[in-house]
Write a structure and sequence with these properties.
This protein is α/β, with parallel strands linked by helices and 870 residues long. It is built from 27 helices and 34 strands. It folds into five domains: 109 residues, PriA, 3(prime) DNA-binding domain (GIY-YIG endonuclease), CATH 3.40.1440; 75 residues, no CATH class; 172 residues, P-loop containing nucleotide triphosphate hydrolases (Rossmann fold); 187 residues, P-loop containing nucleotide triphosphate hydrolases (Rossmann fold), CATH 3.40.50; 104 residues, Alpha-Beta Plaits (2-Layer Sandwich). Helix content is 33%, strand content 22%. It binds a DNA duplex (12 and 12 nucleotides) through β1, β2 and β3.
DNA sequence: AGCACGCCGACT
DNA sequence: GTCGGCGTGCTC
């Protein structure tokens, strides 16, 4: 047993540059057995109490170098982070140029984001020695008597001012606090809104004292419930003399009385049992008979749902050889990464499922990452069906509390498999054996907010820590991954390529027809459907088969535009158009929150021809109805899926064949699998191609390939119609031939010529400042300084040079969104390659600039390996 | 990030 | 003369 004092090195929850380092705190003896790396604690920090994470525990130096304070409180019995996650946080902070606290915070559910709550109590020297916890003092006389007792004497003195008088306001406040012993400051200032000064004075004089406690913001799930506001006897009496006019109210009251031992009752139950409206209950509430309140309910997002158990399917020989390779790696218990390139329908999921089974049987756990958009009930069902309640599911639609509960199942070892979006890569398993990332190429794996991490890189890093296996699966792997796998560079983390080129059920990939929309126009067809697609839909209607229509439009906001003059409603503080919100019927800026009512006439030209432009699905729906009277369409876009479970309902409707056409944006392209879909139509294949993004061709190819894979997955053969204005574009051509390899060959050529990933890496540096001239000067200054430092280190500045260590900096130029919250924005693009610490240098120069006096209000943000360049 | 200390304008 | 504006400096 250690004899000396122990010190905890902690990272405090203060996201600033100055505090992005460890601070030392003494560990009180009582906490010694509990404090370990990953523990969450409350520590005094300056005048405040803040939350902090323990990074390491070390013996205290003798003699101490500086005054050290002690940990105030241990916040969890089981540390929310494991030592490997703490280490991962350090790595992330360097890799993604963020504060360590940001990296640690993103690993745990927001329910554990503790914030200090301030409490006010009577200062110890004045408090009663044996005060009862609830000592109700109602009137001033009562208070007077209490004050005169021996125990209250000290407090009585303290309340007297210099001239021997005492202030009635002070007395009111003090007695209020005495009643409750301890009052949250917030509550106190709500109760005495005008008396802030008096409270401050009492604190200064030491009559009152303040303490701070870290409170988790556990969002409890609640449900509206009804309770009696009066006693049962009184309610029974009231029931007798209810007027005949309020018959419904009488029924409600009687219902509650009947079930008085079960109160409070869920509002929903009352409403449905009696088939009364909420207004009836509201009327009773207004009369003071009942109250409605929020009560907590137990959370399990999948409670009551049965999942049909599934057995492992026999594997095809392709699946078998991939599976065996992974099993070999798992059995070695060594870190290994695989890129599983399997065409749509090749049965990747079954390979995942059986690999997980193997991993579990080794007594290790597995993480399955899927893009948020494809974390559909169908997907969850497949995993729950195979592994039952050994699976925890985490996705953004869960409430904070549900998420917290699922996360606890993982940490407490009650599940073996975690399936979720991006952040599930941090699932706190102890013995991680396998991490699967499905649809590896999806850009949603990159977090766009700080910390701007990429789940793929984090997964590989975590697997390395645990000696675990990573499987990156996709029908259209990202060029970065594919290039790394194929070139098998000296990168020790480069994945090994595994291929599954044929469909598991043996059916062929659907035939893809490209429709040249320019030709349609020349032939006099001005409709949004080509003649062939039109006919295809008609045939499906006749044969009672189904059609999926995809509108490839990037961005998912609805904006308001004037058809006469082209005016678009924009935010006055940000260089961005306002988004239309149906629910509140107003326009909002999603960067700064500014909102305004929807204009009835155009503020520019006065025209009344002002209307919403959204994803355009509505227009397609209208045209379908016109062309095919009686056609049943399920439309999926942001407007129809914003409600909870809307997604699921719409898909079920389609699956049950209650609709002929499923129409939607990107969200219909992913992972859906309907047996009767024999036609897939892409209305506009190339709308993303003109975007200023070097990945435009790659994204177009991926989308077309994914959507083409939706057709004919079962017995019925499938057909795909792709409408395009640039049918000669290589991404369209190769996608139509299901030819990934040729697409990659051509795309890599372009990337090499233009010096883009995977031939180099990128760092996007964004600067913002209130004054444009100052901003431009500082951004130029940054660019020049970085360029100079790189030269000093012997890194070449020209990507054309065939040397290995290169750093080139482009810009500054105005950012695509050139102003946000009244701050102008400029950006630089750093391109680099080789064995150099480009990220470290870019960060270092940014730090130095932020410190210099002239750059006071400058903000610099780095995005390492950005996905969005806009 | 907060919360303090510290130095210059509009008011009792 | 004071209250209070927010510039800058520190937190084990």
């Amino acid at each position: 047993m250690e004899t000396g004092n122990l010190v905890a090195k902690v990272i405090v929850d203060v996201p600033a540059k100055d505090t992005d380092r460890t601070f030392d705190y003494l560990i009180p003896d009582s906490m010694r057995p509990w404090i370990e790396p990953g523990s969450r604690v409350a520590v005094p920090f300056g005048k405040r109490t803040v939350q902090a994470f323990v990074i390491s525990v070390v013996p205290a130096e003798e003699p101490p170098k500086y005054r050290m304070r002690a940990i105030q409180e241990l916040l969890d019995l089981v540390p929310p982070l494991s030592p490997d996650l703490v280490e991962l946080g350090k790595w992330m902070s360097e890799r993604y140029a963020c504060n360590q606290i940001m990296a640690l915070q993103v690993m745990i559910p927001t329910a554990l984001k503790g914030k200090a709550e301030r409490y006010i109590s009577i200062a110890e020297q004045h408090a009663f020695a044996n005060a009862s916890p609830v000592h109700a003092i109602q009137d001033p006389d009562d208070l007077q008597r209490t004050m005169q007792s021996d125990q209250g004497e000290e407090l009585e003195w303290a309340l007297l001012t210099d001239d021997g008088m005492s202030d009635p306001t002070e007395r009111r406040i003090v007695s209020f606090i005495q009643e409750k012993e301890q009052v949250p400051l917030q509550q106190l200032s709500r109760r005495f809104p005008e008396e802030a000064e008096v409270i401050k004075a009492l604190l200064r004089r030491g009559v009152l004292q303040e303490s701070q406690v870290i409170k988790d913001k556990l969002s409890k799930k609640t449900m509206k419930a009804v309770d009696l506001a009066i006693s049962i006897d009184k309610a029974s009496a009231a029931l007798e003399k209810f007027s005949a006019k309020a018959q419904r109210q009488r029924e409600v009251l009687a219902f509650l009385l009947e079930r008085s031992e079960f109160l409070p009752l869920p509002l929903k139950e009352v409403l449905t049992s009696l088939s009364v409206s909420a207004a009836t209950v509201k009327a009773l509430e207004d009369k003071g008979y009942v109250i409605t309140e929020d009560v907590e309910v137990f959370r399990d997002p999948y409670r009551g749902r049965r999942f049909k158990p599934t057995e492992p399917l026999p594997l095809t020989s392709e699946q078998q050889s991939v599976y065996e390779r992974i099993v070999r790696q798992l059995d070695m218990r060594e870190q290994g990464a695989y890129l599983l390139h399997g065409v749509t329908g090749s049965g990747k999921t079954e390979v995942y499922l059986q690999s997980i089974q193997r991993c579990i049987s080794q007594n290790r756990q597995a993480i399955v990452l899927v893009p948020e958009i494809s974390l559909t009930p169908q997907m969850v069902e497949r995993f729950k069906g195979r592994f039952g309640d050994q699976v925890a599911v985490m996705h953004s639609r869960l409430s904070g509390g549900e998420r917290y509960d699922e996360w606890r199942k993982i940490r407490e070892g009650r599940v073996k498999v975690a399936i979720g979006a991006r952040s599930a890569v941090f699932a706190p398993f102890r013995e991680l054996g396998l991490i699967i990332m499905d649809e590896e190429h999806e850009t949603s794996y990159k977090q766009e907010e700080t910390p701007k991490y990429h789940a793929r890189d984090v997964a590989i890093r975590r697997a390395h820590q645990h000696g675990a296996v990573v499987i990156l699966g996709s029908a259209t792997p990202s060029l970065e991954s594919y290039y790394a796998a194929r070139s098998q560079s000296n990168d020790e983390f480069a994945p090994l390529l595994l291929e599954m080129p044929t469909r598991a059920l043996g059916n062929t990939l659907p035939e893809v027809h490209i429709m040249d929309m320019r030709e349609e126009l020349r032939a006099g067809n001005r409709s949004m459907f080509s003649r062939a697609l039109h006919q295809g839909i008609a045939e499906r209607l006749e044969r009672k088969e189904q059609t999926v229509l995809l509108l490839n439009r990037r961005g998912h906001s609805t904006f308001v535009m004037c058809r006469s003059c082209g005016y678009v409603a924009g935010c006055p503080h940000c260089d961005i158009s306002l988004t239309y919100h149906q629910r509140s019927n107003n326009l909002r800026c999603h960067y700064c929150g500014y909102s305004e009512p929807v204009p009835q006439i155009c503020p520019e030209c006065g025209s009344e021809h002002i209307r919403y432009f959204g994803t355009g699905t509505q227009r397609v729906e209208e045209e379908l109805a016109k062309l095919f009277p009686g056609i049943r369409v399920v439309r999926m876009d942001v407007d129809t899926t914003s409600e909870k479970n809307a997604h699921e309902k719409l898909l079920k409707q389609f699956r049950d064949k209650k609709a002929d056409v499923l129409l939607g944006t990107q969200m219909v392209a992913k992972g859906l699998d309907f047996p009767d879909v024999t036609l897939v139509g892409v209305i506009t294949a190339d709308s993303a191609l003109n975007l200023p993004d070097f990945r435009a061709a790659e994204k177009t190819f991926q989308l077309l390939t994914q959507v083409a894979g939706r057709a004919g997955r079962h017995q019925l053969p499938g057909e795909v119609f792709v409408q395009s204005y640039t049918p000669e574009h290589y991404s369209v051509i190769h996608a139509s031939r299901h030819d990934y390899a040729s697409f990659v060959r051509e795309e890599l050529k372009h990337r090499r010529n233009l010096h883009y990933p995977p031939y180099c890496r990128l760092i996007l540096v964004t600067f913002s400042h209130e004054q444009l001239p100052v901003l431009v000067r500082l951004a130029e200054n940054y660019s020049a300084t970085l360029q100079g430092r790189a030269r000093q280190r012997g890194w070449f500045g020209n990507m054309d040079r065939l040397t290995s260590d290169v750093l080139d900096i482009l810009g500054p130029v105005a950012s695509p969104i050139s102003r946000i919250k009244n701050r102008y924005r400029f950006q630089c693009m750093i391109k680099w390659r080789g064995n150099i610490d480009a990220i470290g240098l870019a960060q270092q120069v940014a730090d130095e600039m932020a410190e210099s006096a002239q750059a006071q209000k400058l903000l610099i943000s780095l995005d390492v390996d950005p996905q969005m360049l806009m």
